[in-house]
Amino acid sequence: MKKIKFSAVIMAALIIFSGCGMNNTTKGGLIGGGAGAGIGAMVGNLIGKNAGGTLAGAGIGAVVGAGAGILIGKKMDKLKQQAAAAVANAQVETVKDANGLDAVKVTLASGVLFPTGKSTLSKESMESLTNFTNDVLKANPDCDVAIQGYTDNQGFKKSTAEESIQKNIALSQQRADAVKSFLLAQGAGVNQIKSSVGFGENNPVASNDTKEGQAQNRRVEIYLYASEAMVQSAEAGTLQ
């Protein structure tokens, strides 16, 4: 039985990795169909760890059918397009949430968001985040949001290595909270933003051995993923 389950996971993973050209609608159906959220979550976890990220969302504890997976994938395709149009200088990509369902990750470079070593949003970033709130979050109240802040691994003057690690965690938390506070101030739903967490220098997406890599690691990630209400609508076939 364990061998069968393991093989199913590997097959699902191969389908996803070989289907890079698929849109979210198609992949959502593959994840949801038959295998359900169980295998989907395991594959999603594998993809998330390979990407160096931390998965967003809480497990819904239920199997999501093929039809619901397709509808959620279609919804996320729309969200991805809306986010890309709303936020300047951002990387927008498809990821998996904690349930293995399609989600959207919007990566904002800290150099665009904040002055060096600060957590005060720049004027340019405020405009982009306002557009993001109006065009994406308000338009999709059934979409949950998680915000994650990260730094590079550079130390602070007159600080030990351990002190620098803790200061980077604190700075990343302040930046994640700053983004959350601004989105809420622009009218995002209080219950829509589920978390804002700073991970410091953990989960680097590039090498910290170069200035270019350090710049990539200094970032804030905003995850858009299916809420329980969205899953329920998808299961009922009413999700638009």
Instruction: Write down the overall geometry.
Output: globular
Flag low-confidence runs. Answer: 1-21, 24-52
Distance between the termini: 38 Å
| Annotation, overall tally of beta strands | 5
Instruction: Calculate the mean pLDDT score and round it.
Output: 81
- According to CATH, what is the class? Alpha Beta
Q: How many discrete domains? A: 1
CATH topology call: 60s Ribosomal Protein L30, Chain: A
In words, what does this structure look like?
This protein is an alpha+beta fold and 240 residues long. It has one domain: 60s Ribosomal Protein L30, Chain: A (2-Layer Sandwich), CATH 3.30.1330. The chain is built from 9 helices and 5 strands. The chain has a 5-stranded mixed beta sheet with strand order 1-2-5-3-4. A hairpin with a 5-residue loop joins strand 1 (90-96) and strand 2.
What is the secondary structure topology, with strand pairs?
Blueprint: H1 2-18, H2 24-32, H3 36-50, H4 66-86, E1 90-96, E2 102-109, H5 110-113, H6 123-137, E3 143-150, H7 161-185, E4 193-198, H8 211-217, E5 219-226, H9 228-236
Parallel strand pairs: 3-4
Antiparallel strand pairs: 1-2, 2-5, 3-5
